[in-house]
Amino acid sequence: MRHAPLAVADERVVRSAPGDAVRIDASGCIILPGHVCAHHHLYSALARGMPGPADPPRNFPEILARIWWRLDRALDPETIHLSALLGAVEAARAGTTTIIDHHASPEAIHGSLDGVADGIEAAGLRGAVCYEVTDRHGTARGREGIEENVRFIAANRRPLIRGMMGAHASFTIGPETMAALAAEAARVRAPVHIHLAEDRIDEQDALDRYGMRTAHRLLRAGVLTTDALVAHGVHLDDSEQDALRASGAWLAHNPRSNMNNGVGYAPAARFGERVALGTDGIDGDMFTEARACYLKAREASWETGPSFAVERLTAGARLAGRLFGESLLGTLAEGAPADLIVLEYRHPTPLDSQNLSGHLVFGMTAAQVRDVMAAGRWIVRDRRHVLVDETALAARCREAAPRLWRRMEAY
């Protein structure tokens, strides 16, 4: 911790401010690096308050079939963009400056990643996007998903957006599509972003169809490579955990989503240092996710302290730094990208570098975020998003959401 002015110029933290610099009073505030959400589903943003299915789901496969796979099929270009914009604006308000998104819209695949990327860009955030390749609507749709990822990676010129090769999960991807996915990811040099062992169905399917557990299937297929990003990892056994650590892949831990879906607790402490935090589409609030991360880890082991959750936030920044070629991302060091948040946290007890973790987990919240900067540009000032008219956006979303919900009835 240091008590000193922080200067920004040319989108980076610098040693001293230029003479014509605009000065912002942050006295009494805490300045932190912006947060990274390592696994999001922005397309879920318009699901808030959505009527539940007539026959309520009783397990994870039924949650997918009766809710999320109906929602993603009902998405059109308008709701894809609105969902991304709304989710990104709300994430920014919560102090998140980078979103790694995982998108699906099986009835509107081509061009869908532009809708997501444009929403993130309009909110002023950094982002990495991908399309969820799956065979659940046939291998032709699976191939179309691969093509959308490749198209976007080749065409994207947005300075704060990157492309990845997305995939749903092993249990909805057949051998031909998996082989094509791995080949194209290697050809375009893009890491794969895929769900892994979120539910037992993923493991059982791999054992039944391929005679091996899921992580071993992905490893053999060439998907589980250095800098690949897998989400959840709830049901990995010891051999898979070893394979994951040895591969150099990252894991996005999503404790709130795991609780919401009742899939179990991922033993995140066993996966090594490359474990970041995601929200799996619940929201973009990493303060709340970090607290849930700590509490679940603490419940699993008395040896876990608050620093475990903060280390997961730090890992997310390292992951984003590798995607953007910015080794100092997530720090306030000289030369680091100026992605930062100003927090009006009036700490009632001493605060220093030794006890920051305890303050972040037990005291700091998204409600205290006053200002947010991404790539040297203010995107939130005095708790108001300065790039997007939030009132107008909410009105558009209130009109679009019921139409989206009605379209779900066809699926």
Written account of the structure:
The chain has 411 residues and is α/β, with parallel strands linked by helices. It has a single domain (30-402), classed as TIM Barrel, CATH 3.20.20.140. The chain has 13 helices and 16 strands. The chain has helices spanning 60-74, 77-93, 112-122, 139-155, 175-188, 200-210, 214-221, 238-247, 255-261, 286-300, 307-324, 356-362, 390-408, and strands spanning 7-9, 12-14, 30-33, 35-40, 96-101, 126-129, 161-163, 165-169, 192-196, 229-232, 250-253, 275-277, 340-343, 369-374, 377-381, 384-385. The strands form 4 sheets. The protein has a 5-stranded antiparallel sheet, covered by helices on one side. Strand 1 (7-9) and strand 2 (12-14) form a beta hairpin. 49% of the residues are buried.
Question: TL;DR of this structure?
Answer:
41% of the residues lie in helices and 16% in strands. The protein is α/β, with parallel strands linked by helices and 411 residues long.
Strand-helix topology:
Layout: E1 7-9, E2 12-14, E3 30-33, E4 35-40, H1 60-74, H2 77-93, E5 96-101, H3 112-122, E6 126-129, H4 139-155, E7 161-163, E8 165-169, H5 175-188, E9 192-196, H6 200-210, H7 214-221, E10 229-232, H8 238-247, E11 250-253, H9 255-261, E12 275-277, H10 286-300, H11 307-324, E13 340-343, H12 356-362, E14 369-374, E15 377-381, E16 384-385, H13 390-408
Parallel strand pairs: 4-5, 5-6, 6-7, 8-9, 9-10, 10-11, 11-12
Antiparallel strand pairs: 1-2, 3-13, 13-14, 14-15, 15-16
Helix pairs in contact: 1-13, 2-3, 2-13, 4-5, 7-8, 10-11, 11-12
